[in-house]
Amino acid sequence: MRDLRWKGAHAPEDGDWIIAEIPWHGPAHLVEVLGADDRAEWDDAAVASQFRLRVAFPKNALEEAAAWREPEARELKSQNREDRRDDVVVTIDPSDARDHDDALGVRALGGGRHEVGVHIADVGWYVRPGSAIDLEARARGTSCYLPGGAVPMLPERLSGDLCSLREGVDRLALSVFATLDNSGRLHEYRFAATAIRSRARLSYERVQRALDGAEPLGEALQTSISTLMRLARALRSRRLAVGALQLESVEVKAVVDEHGVPLRMERRPHLESHELVEEFMLGLPRLPRQADDPHRALQALLEVPLDPAKRRLVHRMVLRSLARARYLERDLGHFGLATREYLHFTSPIRRYPDLHNHRRVREWIARARDQAWDPHETAALAAECSGREQDATDAEREATRVKGLRLLEGRLGERLSGSITGLVPRGCFVELDDPPVDGFIAVGDQLDDRFELDAAGVRLVGQRTRRRFTLGDTVQVTVARVDVPARECDLALEQDETRRGRHGKPGVRRPARRQGWL
Question: How far apart (Å, rounded) are the C-alpha atoms in residues 105 and 100?
Fold first, then answer.
């Protein structure tokens, strides 16, 4: 047994999980305390450690960030920067957004044409290439949003303050001005460095209520939002006409208290106000992101009317059938969006590829030499960013699942309903209706039967009982076992479910074998 040594006042407690360096000889040294697996306040730290997220910023990066001040008059009114602070500009984000890096505005030009302004925080003004902040941002690649807080790409002084397009505050931006007619046709566009002042911080829900007429905004804001929505609908119609997929991805969020204890799990529906923003967030290629080629048949499939649970399943399966998006050093387009040229540009506070692309735009504006096209360096950056983004996505999903499992810990033995979302020979994966958490039913053990998966992978059939379980089926279950550290949840079929025979008819119930996880 080795002695454990540490620095500082925070000592690990009995039952805590820790990370330690263990040399061949001598005492072990404490690196990190992950906390006890029964304390919800440590969940985010455990996930961050699992995915090796960079939680602490280096001292020199923090010092660089702290040295920046609010933009001064000479920066706001520079001859190289347009002063658009009198424009009606708003941010539209999730209600719990922690940074605001894009804003929208529109003004009528006459003759059925409009100038839409897409304003993105000028992060490149603050994060200079090769600086300590830049090196750390590249190492992180992206921000990661966990239930209890963010692991940001940039220090808080920038991500939540100077770079964030806060309401009523002067901010520096890079803007795209696009001239559109009422049919959504693009007539011209240009880039410019700008100074803006957001008139309002709006959430998607607030904008949707305004669009529905349930809670109108002030006259100027309502006119702006309504015009933007009309133009967004026209842009979307044009993309759908050439084959774009209308995929809906329902986000599940864990709402926690100040101690990390989950209060509830929420499905956040896709609103038309999301589409308002999405349609104006397409840009010109520099560090492209590639996705798979869809087919007209998929478009028709996605338009079939279904109940909410089956609709979520179909959209999820179509999304999974497409190749995973990744960054590349060359442009291959984004066929899911029916766009020949596609990149990430609108979130430089939280994505390093967007910051990279901002620097290229600044070079275009200044007519400076493009410094980005060493193909080997760009390919390496693309691969790095793809990996970092996938790590962050996996960490966010893992952290959300942990909170969902903690919520189910207090509901053992409770009867719930859900839908089958996945099948393997041993059983079914089920997404519960409320809370939206996944669990597993070992149907073979519970029904004392041997099940086989059909060739299409969409149905399990019992060899003795001929009992069938099909993707999308609704089932009634009981929460049988929850193991948070193992990330496992076992569900048991309700009694009336186990009694069903072939084609759902009553059958003979046999003793269930011991339940377990895959």
Answer: 15
